[in-house]
């Protein structure tokens, strides 16, 4: 009986070790994750009138901004942005972000505001 328990404990330990090694290989280090988040935002380019700013509670509480761009609706996600941009934006604002940049121009009431985007990882 002790022999069977010992074998079960051994297999359990080996199984846990395999799971930990696998998990370590599929997760990114925080620095790499941060770099990927920044690069994803740098690659984006958009320009349009904001029609909706909301937190989508049905979809993981994503911070979403809906704009009309070239007569089409487009959803911009601002989940990792922590500089207050999402809180600043309002319906009716015109926003413009150029490819390769981390700042966004917000036009509201004939005034332009340039906001530098700040990020965090998950």
Intertermini distance: 47 Å
Q: Any idea what the radius of gyration is?
A: 22 Å
Mean pLDDT: 85
Into which percentage range does the β-strand content fall?
A: 25-35%
* Count of helix runs: 3
Helix content: 25-40%
| CATH class bucket of the largest domain | Mainly Beta
Could you tell me the number of beta strands? Answer: 6
Strand order of the largest sheet: 3-2-1-4-5-6
How many structural units, i.e. domains?
Answer: 2
How do the SSEs run, as a string of H and E? HHEEEHEEE
Low-confidence stretches: none
Shape category:
elongated
Largest β-sheet summary: 6 strands, antiparallel
CATH topology of the largest domain: OB fold (Dihydrolipoamide Acetyltransferase, E2P)
Structural class: alpha+beta
CATH architecture designation of the largest domain: Beta Barrel
Please explain how this structure is put together.
The structure is a single chain. By secondary structure, this protein is of the alpha+beta class. It has 2 domains: 2-29; 34-116, Beta Barrel (OB fold (Dihydrolipoamide Acetyltransferase, E2P)), CATH 2.40.50. The protein is 35% helix and 34% strand. It contains 3 helices and 6 strands, in the order H-H-E-E-E-H-E-E-E. The protein has helices at 2-26, 30-43, 85-88; strands at residues 46-56, 62-69, 72-77, 94-97, 103-108, 111-116. It has a 6-stranded antiparallel beta sheet with strand order 3-2-1-4-5-6, with no helix packed on it. The chain is elongated and about 80 Å long. The termini are far apart. The model has no long low-confidence stretch (mean pLDDT 85).
